[in-house]
Amino acid sequence: MRMFQMTKWAYNKNLAEPRYSSMFGFVRLRDMKKVPFKIFVYLLLCYLCILPIFAQNDVVAGQGFFDEFKNSTSSEERSVFFFNTPNRYNENSAYDWLEAVNIYLNNSEKTKDSLAITHYKLIQSQIHHDLGDYDKSLAIAKELYVNKEALDLDTKTILLELMDTTYSKLELYAEQMEVRKEKKQLGITKNIAFYDIYSDLGLHRDAMKDYFENEKKYIDEKDYYGQAVFWNNVGTYLRLDKSYPTALSNYKKSLGFINVYLNDVITDKSDKQETESKVLRAIIDGNIGKCHVLLKQYQEAIPYLERSIDSISVYNAGKFSSELVENKLEIAECYLQLEDFEKATDFLSDGNRPIKLKNVLKKNRLLAYYYDKTNEFEIASEYYKKNMRIRDSIEENQSNLWEQQLAAVVGEDKANAKRMMEEQRAALERSKDEMVEKEREFSVIFVSLVFTLLGFAGLVYAYLKSIKNQRLIAEQKHIIENSLVEKDSLLKEIHHRVKNNLQMVSSLLSLQTKNTRSKAAIEALEEGKSRVKAMALIHQKLYQHDDLSVIEMQGYIESLINSVQSVYKKGGHNINITIDAEDVELDIDRAIPFGLILNELVSNSFKYAFPTSEDDGKIYIHLRKIADQDGFFEYTDNGIGLPEDTDERTNSSMGIRLMNRLVNQLQSKLNIDKTSEGVRFWFNFK
Question: Which residues pair with residue 622 across a beta bridge?
Fold first, then answer.
C-alpha cells in the first residue's frame, strides 16, 4: 500500500514528465527504453517479491490500539487487551470500537459461542459507560449478571466493578450496596465501605470521619499514590461540607504526593499506572481550581482548571468525564465573573452535555447570567425558568428518594453490625456446646446416670435463666436507646427551629434596613443582623452534629468567617485568615459568646483595619481548650490598629462593651494589646 502511495506522489510532483518509483529509485519512462529486457524483467520480479514484505512490515510498525484489538485471534485476547489498555480511544473514537464489537458479537451469536458473547457484551457495556450512556451500560451488565455463576473470577470482578460504578452514577445506592456485598463475599474487597454513598446523600462530614478512621491506618507512608488519593478524597468531603480553606490545604497536600509519585524514576510504572496517575493529578488540579472559585479567587482558579481540562482531554480521551464537564463550567464562571464573555462562551458552548442535575442547573444558571449581562433578558429568563422547573421537580421527588436511600444505607450498616454480632454469637454458642459435650462425656464416665441428669438439668436451668436475663437486659437497652434517639431528634428539631426563627429575625432586620435612610441606623441594623447570624449558625451546627452537647469550633469559625466575608469584604482586598482551632469542642453556653466575640472582631477588622486595597491583610485566630484545664483565645490582625483614644471610647463603644460582657460570661477578662502594627485581643477562660 505504501509503495503505491509513493508512486502516486511521484507522478503528481512532476506532471510534465511522469515517473514511477522502484526499489532502486525513480526511473523516467523515456530512460526505460535503454534498459535491456532481461534486466527489466528481473527487476520487476524482485519488486513484486519484496513488495508484500515491505507492506506487511509497514502495517505492523504503524499499528494502533484499534488495529491491534482487531488483529487479536480470540475474544479472550480482545477482552484482556481492551481492559488493560489506557487511552484506547486516542486514535479511534469509542463509536468505532462499539461498531467493531457489535460485529464480533453478532458473529458470536450466530455461532452460539457463549464465552465470546460474554466477552463482547462486557466490552460493549464498558464502552457505553465510557460514553456516559449509563442506562444502556447497566442493562447489558444486568444481562450478564443473570448468569454470573458461569463466569470466571476475573470476568466477574470486571462486571461487578463496572456495575458498582454505574449504580453510583445513576444514584441507585441500594443496588450498589448489594453489589459491594457480593464483592466482599468473592474476596474482591476486604470490607464493605459506604463513605462515597454517605457523601452523595449529603452527609459529607460523617463520610470524612469514617473514611479517615478506617482508611488512614492502611496507607503506607511511602505509598505516594495512595496518599494522594486519600488526601484528595478528604479534601472533597471538606469542600462539599463548605470548609473551603481546609479543603484547599488538603488538595495541595494531595498534589504534592502525586507529583512525587510521577517524578519517581526509581519505581517502575506500567502505562496504565502512568495514565491513571496523570488523570488523578488532573482531577486534583480541578479540585484546587474549584476551591479557588468557591473562595471567589477567580484569577487563581483559572490556571489549575486549564491544566485539569487539558490533561483530562489527553489522558481520558474518548470517555465521558463528569470532572471535565464540571471544570469547564467552573472556568466559564471565572471568565463570566471577570467579564471576559468571549472565553466564557467558548466553554459554555463546547458541546459537552452535562448529565448530573447539579451540572445542568449550573450551566443554565451561567447561561442566564451571561444573557443577563449582555442585555438579552428574554433568553436569560428562559434559562431561569428551566432551572425553576428542574428544582420544582427535584423538590417533589428528591426528598422521599433521599430518605429512602439514607434509610437503606443506615439499614445496611446495622445489618453489617448485626451479622458480625451473629457470627460472634454463633462462635460463642459453638464453644459452649463443645464445653457442655465434654462435661457430659466426663460425667458419663465418673458419675452415675442420676447425678449426670441432675447436673445437666442444673446447667439447662442456669442457661435458660441466663437467656431470660439477657433478653430482659436487651429489651431494657432497646427501650433506652429508642428514648435517646427520640430525645436527640427532638433536640435537633428545637435547634433547627431556633435557627429558623433567628433567620427570620435576620430577614426582618434586612427589611428594616431597606426602609431606613439613616446611615448610622443601617450600620447598626447590619451589625445586629450579623450577630443574629452568628447565633443562628451555632444552632445550625448543633443540629447537624451527631453530638448535640458540643460544637466543633474549627468548622464553626470557618463558616462564621465566610458569612462575615460575604457582607464586609471589599473588592481588591487581599486578606489572609488563619484559623487554629482543630479538635476544640465547646458547649453551647460557651460557643455563643465566642461566636458573638468573633463576629465583632472580624467585622471590625474588615471594616476598619485595612482601609486601602494595597494592604496585605492578615488575621490570626487561635483557640485552645484541653479537658480539665483553662482555655486560651487569641485574635490578632496586622491592620492600622486601634485609635489613640480607645480607652476613652470604651464606655461609648457598643462593640467593646458587648465583648467585655461576653468575656465576663466566660468568667474572664478581655485583654487588648495595641502594638505598632495591628492589634491583639486575648483572654483565658474556664
Answer: 580, 634
Among residues 45, 2, 35, which one has the least CA distance to residue 21?
A: 2
Q: What is the pLDDT of residues 360-379, one digit of tens each?
A: 888 888 888 888 888 888 88
CB 180 within 8 A of CB 164: yes
Which amino acid is it at 568?
A: Y
Extended strands (E) in 33-191: none
Q: Residues 6 or more apart from 464 whose CB is under 8 A from it?
A: none
Q: How many CB atoms lie within 10 A of CB 449?
A: 9
Reported as a single tens digit per residue, the pLDDT across 643-677 is 776 665 655 677 788 888 889 988 888 888 876 67
Element (H, E) at 585: strand 585-586
Other beta carbons within 10 angstroms of residue 55's beta carbon come to 13
In what helix (H) or strand (E) does residue 649 lie, and over which residues does it extend? helix 646-649
Averaged pLDDT, 293-301: 93
* Distinct helix (H) and strand (E) counts, the chain: 25, 9
Q: Dihedral through CA 565, CA 567, CA 570, CA 575, nearest 10?
A: -10
How many Cα atoms are found within 13 Å in the side-chain-facing hemisphere of 532? 19
What single-letter amino acid sits at 268?
Answer: D
Q: Tens digits of per-residue pLDDT, 241-283? A: 999 999 999 999 999 999 999 998 788 888 888 888 999 999 9
DSSP 8-state class, residue 350: S
Which amino acid, 299?
A: Q
Please count the other Cβ atoms lying within 10 Å of the Cβ belonging to residue 471. 10
CB 19 within 8 A of CB 27: yes
Which pTM was predicted? 0.48
Confidence label for 305 from pLDDT (cuts 50, 70 and 90): very high
State how far the Cα of 285 lies from the Cα of 306, in Å rounded to an integer.
9
pLDDT bin (cut points 50, 70, 90) of residue 234 is very high
Contact (CB, 8 A) for 226 and 219: yes
